[in-house]
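Cont'd.
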Amino acid sequence: MSDNSFSISNRNISKFLPLLLLPIWFLLYSNLQWLTDKLVNDVFGLTAGTHLTETLRFFIFEVPKVLMLLALIIFFVGIIRTYFSPERTRKALEGKSLFTGNIMAASLGIVTPFCSCSAIPLFLGFIESGIPLGVTFSFLIAAPMINEVAIVLLFGLFGWKTALIYVVTGLIIAITAGWVIGRLHLEKWVEPWVYELKAADHPEDEKLTFGKRIKLGFEAVKEIVGKVWIYVMIGIAVGAGVHGYVPQDFMSSFMGKSAWYSVPLSVLIGIPLYSNAAGIIPIVSALIEKGAALGTSLAFMMSVIGLSLPEMIILRKVLKLPLIFTFIGVVGTGIILVGFLFNYIF
Amino acid sequence: MEIKILGTGCSNCKNLEKATREAVAELNLDANVVKEEDIVKIMGYGVMRTPALVVDEKVLVYGRVPSVKEIKEMLSK
């Protein structure tokens, strides 16, 4: 089997491979603009300044840039994540009071490995061990909304300030929304069978060597980049088209600051829209360039990434409809407020 | 040997099932591989992350898809 021969050599190399790959990564990354210009001007021989040339240049530069950033960050996040698990997060949250619990749950939501397909077992596991509903919600809001893919794309396409604003406001929304849901005492809208589940002992954590953690970091890169690269390509292609062809200030009339209704409207449109961060952020970055306001764009992204229809459908198994609507309402209101705030500040 | 794959039907659960069946076939094991999709039963194993690999009622891996080679090593023990 090719699988065998590969993994035997893989085991020896895996510890040194990052050290080998890092310099190549930095060399390539720091020369990306030069390489792009070389390719566009000399190899393709295109005239600078035309719509087509600038669209192509944007695409050829941004796709490898974002994919390389993703690979690097996901590798390190993948290693860090081997130190966290929902089981440990649950243990940390047990017996915490409402407000402290909300803060911890939202923060741990960023680093704990999470996939929306595991939302149900995670929800059940939290409730089972007596973690309050509101604290559980803080986790469920932060985990999908603030993830490494979103942070890398925001950092790569908007810069560190916007990435930081997104993380901090996302955290505040997750903390406050969870706290509000907790205060409303909505346990009656959780499917009754949930509270009848008996807590089971969770299996022992796997013991991991550092070599193994590095290997898991690589696997995370393979899995996540393998899944999102197509969205990155499509998102940047659309973004490149907007960048090259849409006239300057085109967006300002309907997504600009003066159009106050654009914030709630963006959030409403964003809720049923389902895309991951990789697809939506490049498009929004191009819209901002054409005059869309930062607050409106931020609200739109948060609503698309943080509130998704598929996740609501999954959660319907354990939550009754009124609770799902309350959840969407509270989080949506938070996002709208963030949108207004940033339109006001900037 | 009784092998169970815990998962509610996500793509990784299918990957784990496929890898496990491959491992069982390569080792020529006399094992019964079944998929457990009932969330209440899955919770009975104390697992919060799917998919999970359960052999003779003991959870061996959860929350990730190990390689065929890794599964073979675990099953040979």
